[in-house]
Amino acid sequence: MRPSDQLRDVQIQRGYLESNPASVLYRCGKTIVLCTASLESSVPPWLEGKGKGWVTAEYNMLPGSTSPRKRRDRSGKVDGRTTEIQRLIGRSLRAVIDLHKLGENSIVVDCDVLQADGGTRTASITGGFIALAIAVEQAVAGSSVGNGPLTDSVAAISVGLHGDEVKLDLDYELDSAADVDMNVIMTGSGRFVEIQGTGEEATFDDDQLAKMLKLAKKGIADLTKLQQQELSR
Amino acid sequence: MRPSDQLRDVQIQRGYLESNPASVLYRCGKTIVLCTASLESSVPPWLEGKGKGWVTAEYNMLPGSTSPRKRRDRSGKVDGRTTEIQRLIGRSLRAVIDLHKLGENSIVVDCDVLQADGGTRTASITGGFIALAIAVEQAVAGSSVGNGPLTDSVAAISVGLHGDEVKLDLDYELDSAADVDMNVIMTGSGRFVEIQGTGEEATFDDDQLAKMLKLAKKGIADLTKLQQQELSR
Amino acid sequence: MRPSDQLRDVQIQRGYLESNPASVLYRCGKTIVLCTASLESSVPPWLEGKGKGWVTAEYNMLPGSTSPRKRRDRSGKVDGRTTEIQRLIGRSLRAVIDLHKLGENSIVVDCDVLQADGGTRTASITGGFIALAIAVEQAVAGSSVGNGPLTDSVAAISVGLHGDEVKLDLDYELDSAADVDMNVIMTGSGRFVEIQGTGEEATFDDDQLAKMLKLAKKGIADLTKLQQQELSR
Amino acid sequence: MRPSDQLRDVQIQRGYLESNPASVLYRCGKTIVLCTASLESSVPPWLEGKGKGWVTAEYNMLPGSTSPRKRRDRSGKVDGRTTEIQRLIGRSLRAVIDLHKLGENSIVVDCDVLQADGGTRTASITGGFIALAIAVEQAVAGSSVGNGPLTDSVAAISVGLHGDEVKLDLDYELDSAADVDMNVIMTGSGRFVEIQGTGEEATFDDDQLAKMLKLAKKGIADLTKLQQQELSR
Amino acid sequence: MRPSDQLRDVQIQRGYLESNPASVLYRCGKTIVLCTASLESSVPPWLEGKGKGWVTAEYNMLPGSTSPRKRRDRSGKVDGRTTEIQRLIGRSLRAVIDLHKLGENSIVVDCDVLQADGGTRTASITGGFIALAIAVEQAVAGSSVGNGPLTDSVAAISVGLHGDEVKLDLDYELDSAADVDMNVIMTGSGRFVEIQGTGEEATFDDDQLAKMLKLAKKGIADLTKLQQQELSR
Amino acid sequence: MRPSDQLRDVQIQRGYLESNPASVLYRCGKTIVLCTASLESSVPPWLEGKGKGWVTAEYNMLPGSTSPRKRRDRSGKVDGRTTEIQRLIGRSLRAVIDLHKLGENSIVVDCDVLQADGGTRTASITGGFIALAIAVEQAVAGSSVGNGPLTDSVAAISVGLHGDEVKLDLDYELDSAADVDMNVIMTGSGRFVEIQGTGEEATFDDDQLAKMLKLAKKGIADLTKLQQQELSR
């Protein structure tokens, strides 16, 4: 059994699609997310002529990613959970990019979940950042993280509270059992980008909060190393 | 000028609509939200036959609530921000209710913003709780907070980081200037229900997080008193 | 009991929202409508370059305005009744404005029903005219009704036929009992703008028509006085 | 030139579609409407178990019915004009039927405009009534107008005010020139079902109203005879 | 009983609508389709500035065209069958037109089915071609088939396999009984434009394919003669 | 360069998703389709109580599957091409299954295109059949192709006409250059399930048709062998 302070096994395959180098197959335990970053030489209407670019994300679960099968989102109404997740991914990625240095270009990061076993939103951020970094390198020749539009890296992890025990990187089973679920998004340099702690039908106190944040920092540090390894290949 | 650790002026008018005692006009500075709780003697399909009830919320800004006028949401696609807010309100209210004690009944809390000047989501939670409490009293005769379905009260407040200064209860102007915006939802007994800290194009560290949480607790304590006064009338 | 030729008690509160002077809280018995007029310095595409402006209206009932709660209109399909009512409000307001004198500007009059007890469409017209007049005054300095874009005032009232008895200003209970329901919209100077007489599963003859029109004229004259008082403050 | 108190040439072809005897091709000048009544052995959910039936109408203009071509209504949003018209047709037809005598059956009257030259809504009512009467005869053997579910016949006509002149049965050209447009729906026995008088950017007085109603009555009487002839074949 | 290699009775009425000469009422047995071609002096955005035109088709069945009544397509989602059919009609018509000779103009061919008894898609192509040819003659003066934008004529017919017997021009009853249904679209000069052979829950072999194609060619030749007669009037 | 009668390199990976054995990653040249078959113990409403099952398919291209990025289908309107393709996949799979032997169960075959380089619909059928066969084996223990619900196998391939040359298995480049594009779907035993030959702005004659069909048969025979190998592992 996995220790409660250890990440699931992570495998990262960059350039998964021949047609797009900025495509990353990100596996974290049984969770599999295909992240692709696409560069477009335009910006949304409300940014036109401002000399800066834009980064956005779209998130989707394939019907076969869950059991029982998830119905395909074709009603014209993206469900609330999906909307929240893709907004979170977009904000997280934008926290580490200087949009002015991107010029009037957009990058869309698509995160399509092929198999879901908990942690799909944090996998999307961690894997999506790698796809983004590759796309930025292509858009701005000679750039790298910290040297060009990207000011830092970003990664995300979940922590949970089950009774009084704190656990890192919740898979579906752990997530279902947790009283409180917290997603922490941090930069490679150790600053918070976003904290979302939620106790559906439960609450938590200061001590528990402190424990969860401490564990999250450890997880983020581990993920940051994996990102650096993959990007330096 | 308002001190940075002080709430805006709050006015609460319960029974605002003659046709529904569980209607609350909640004012917080210039922000005005009409919260109404409606009891329905049925539950959503996925809860039928489980002997428990449901609480949900809907949030909407009236077109005239902002300047320039906000377009009415009639495209069939509720925008992402609205979806996030109403899911947050619903989760927050459900954190302080024992749904089994509600029987197979639903309560919908509608939060319609008549005038928006920052803090509409936190006003919706704080005012919406009062409407909910009145509706619960009607549904379960003789019940009150702590004695019946409601296990505690819940309130919400925003805190912001501007440079290195921390501010309580952001109005629109303060919110626009803030680098980091954090919404804190807590029970009357002082436990966290939800923490959402977001730095769009900014980040924060441990110290700043601690300062923001401390200030939020003070604000929640003040709001809890106001809720108790109104409910004991 | 209210005499059959007398209006319900009317209360008008202009400047209800601090952020918009052209906001009017209109109460007529238990019916409460918030009317706000918003000026936009553009016209719909089909009017561009024609040197004239546009006035339109949107009507909506808040979920808490009725008991049982009215479902929020979020399907992307505005229901037929709502469409009819907002088209009627728009036509009525346009009947008393010289759109050429408005320049290429639009005014949207939002009528949001906070509490519904019959007569919401006529309240929206009568109250909406006041909001419109304030917005026009702001758009065209020095203008007033009869002197500037507004050529006249407009007000609306319902009359009903119950058996052979004619009644003015139907509340929900009277409206439900009526065999024939007629909405009459007239200018302050006493000309018809629109007559809509409908007998769902009932019919009416010439005499009954004459009686209903006579009573409606009395009601319109009373409302016109109230509008003038409020606008001359 | 047609006298101002005379109807356009009317041609009625019942049983136009071999597959449905209750199909009527109704021509009025150049306006052509195909009216078909379809019987369904069920009622809308809100009428189930009440022992009465329902009559409703749908109205649609074919793309080739106007020049330039009218875009097909496939956006999922039926436009406001269409909604108003089909609600009017439905109410008018229901005014002459005793729904209890229909049993728990529904009749849908479809009015599809093949060619539009003004007066499509009144043609739909006048022609739609014939289709309805045939369908009722089939549903309730031995019934006829006045003897069975149908208590009377119903027909509709437009009248217009152009300057101070009053005109009957407006085609597109006359309708465009008219200051005030009034649609009058009456029973065969001469009672009003609905009056809709509208002055878009114009108003009218008592005398003008009286003249318009008088002319409308003449037109309705003429149409009623044509309906009786067709139904007695 | 109709021989298995003979078409149903075809009747073609050009100029059916006074307002548009390019309107054709096409009857084939009990199937009735109203085809109207409308010329628009613009092209879709993706063709702008390329010096060529566009031809497209829309297909629709009226509610009264089938028994039981077909629900009107107002959900905003055109059903799959309708989409397939109108794409097929458009491709078939474009196969015989030189879009460069049309200039930057569009022609929309609307095919509205008034009565459906099998073969509505093939009737739409055969009748739609006549409407198109009339519209092209109007758009490009002096042009005719083979001399101007239209390089050839096009017609369509169905053939079916029932057991081992092959049948031409399936009406609803024959179509329901057929194991394999094949639609063949050919030019007047005898070349294939499109072949669609489908065995829902059945399959076919080379011999059967050969027989079906042979019979289809005979049917197309007969239809081509009828088209030529109508266009030479 | 690949000979014109040879398939692209095909790679099939069954059980690609740990959570569902009936998941197949199908590669054909650069085209990659993830096919997953999901069993549901219910049937669509129109099949209830008839003692037979249902097989349907859904097709989708991921945004990153093409360059430039394909917009995600979230408008509520599935585009016409997608609708046609998924209807074709469904019909093709149903041609080789005895739905009565499936009992009242449904199988949904999802075909999600990860990378698109031509032939995605034929890959979806060929790969989708393998996923279907695995799901059927699980649903009906002891069954295999020809022994149980599946009466035969099914595969699909495209052939094209470029000038007078015929080519097998068109990739994107070949497809764009082809004058005529034909998709042929056949059973493992060599019978036609569906033929769709389309010449957008081109036509073809009998000889060309014969050549295309001959080449398609060779391709189908090769694919059938690959399917058998994979299923016998």
Automatic annotation (TrEMBL), chains A, B, C, D, E, F:
Keywords: Nucleotidyltransferase, RNA-binding, rRNA processing, Transferase, tRNA processing, tRNA-binding. Its EC number is 2.7.7.56. It comes from the Bacteria. It is an enzyme of class 2 (transferase). GO terms for molecular function: 3'-5'-RNA exonuclease activity; tRNA binding; tRNA nucleotidyltransferase activity. PROSITE patterns: RIBONUCLEASE_PH. Residues 6-135, 153-219 form the Exoribonuclease phosphorolytic domain. It catalyses: tRNA(n+1) + phosphate = tRNA(n) + a ribonucleoside 5'-diphosphate. Residues 60-80 are annotated as: Disordered. Phosphate binds at R81, G119, T120, R121. GO terms for biological process: rRNA 3'-end processing; rRNA catabolic process; tRNA processing. SUPFAM superfamilies: Ribonuclease PH domain 2-like, Ribosomal protein S5 domain 2-like. Belongs to the RNase PH family. Homohexameric ring arranged as a trimer of dimers. Phosphorolytic 3'-5' exoribonuclease that plays an important role in tRNA 3'-end maturation. Removes nucleotide residues following the 3'-CCA terminus of tRNAs; can also add nucleotides to the ends of RNA molecules by using nucleoside diphosphates as substrates, but this may not be physiologically important. Probably plays a role in initiation of 16S rRNA degradation (leading to ribosome degradation) during starvation. This is Ribonuclease PH. It comes from Stieleria marina.
